[in-house]
Amino acid sequence: MSGRLSRYLHVGVLACVFISIFAIRIYRIDEHFLLLEDQIRDWSIVLGPFTKLPLVGPPTHVGGYTIGPAFYWIMWVVRVTFGPWFQNLPHAGGIGQAALQSGADVLLLYAVWRRTQSVWLGLATAVLLATAGYDLHLAAVIWNPMVGTALAKIATALVMLGWPERSAAGTAVTAAVAWCGVQSYTGVIFVALSIFVAILVPPFGRRDRTMLLQKARIIALVVAALQIPYMLHQLSTGFTHSAMGAVTGSVARILTGQDPPQLTNSWAGYFGAVHRIQVVPWNAPWSVWALIACGVVVANRYRRDPTLLAVTLLPQVMAIVGYAFYVGDFLDSYYYFSLMPAAVLTVLLALTAVSSRPIAQTIAMALFALSVAIAPARIAYAHSLPRMPEYRLLVDASRKIAKVPQPMREIQTEFKLPPTADPAFVYKILGGRIDSASPFVAVIKSDGGVAFTKISP
After folding, report:
1. Cα–Cα nearest to 379, from 24, 16, 98
2. Which of 163, 192, 223, 203 is nearest to 314 (CA)?
3. Rounded to two decimals, what is the model's pTM?
């Protein structure tokens, strides 16, 4: 096959996969976009100018906030890029986030393809990640854990493609992407640290002390530079606004002996998340042992490839150990979204870890076929999870209300919205104005119609 034809084939495969998984993720998003408190808050922020963005990330459910503004930077770019096509409505952010996730999956596909010389293994990786039900349910929602996961995939792909080995710039870009993932969602820290290890392992193995120190210095400088906004925020608040107080408090309690390490809970939390994200809608309680067995196989088969082990096994081990220092619940599977590429690659690499290349390729083809065969059930499961079908009613009705040359005192709905939803949010984006002195109240009806009520003075 000629070089040009080969390039066309690569581009064609990657483009087809991107279009397919992107379409699955945004299917009818304008009808059921999940517009809740986090989405309203974050989209409101990125609707403003870049200079008004916070210097830190979104608040966390355990108190504090993420340690940098990367999530808001990325979503601001999404808003500027995709927003004008959709009147800056919130689902534009979901579409942009889905595009980022799909691009990350395709880059990881290409990286696996190049690293293993198996397009089938790359395709199976992309399909298993993109069609995982719980992940798919949230892939097109404006939410920082999903952006952090996309960045974790990109950083993993860059390592597998050898970017850090090629140049100092490749090292800097890879480290920056990984750390921006941490700024987007703190749970990405285990992937980011593993990425740093993967960058440092090759010169360490070669006993190239000069290169090892250079790469370590680049990583440190990149992290320090990305933390400048956080330091400016702390200076502006007099260091009174703690970022991750709950996390540091948990670590302190365990290190001082107030609580024992939560290793059992961490173990159960991780493998429970793998089951919910990658196995459901099927029930396979043995999947935990299957993943462990695959990890043993990969550790043995790729023992001479520490870089690959650093982006597959190491993040999972670090997460189990790291979360053992967290005194809290482990019921939220989204803590572990960024670890799913490592888990999926562990299984796929183990199942194809045979000495005969033709047999390995045949197994990879079968795994890809299996991933496609189970995709419909996983997609159906994603569609069964809670959505917000009222979003379409809000958008259609808000367009009608915004055409009325009068501000509204209030926007009400005949139907029940989730507690954290705001029926006036879309109306205000479309140019409508809420004025407490206005005598008009707009009521959005269950059929999408609008009734206007005038309140007597």
Report:
1. 24
2. 192
3. 0.95
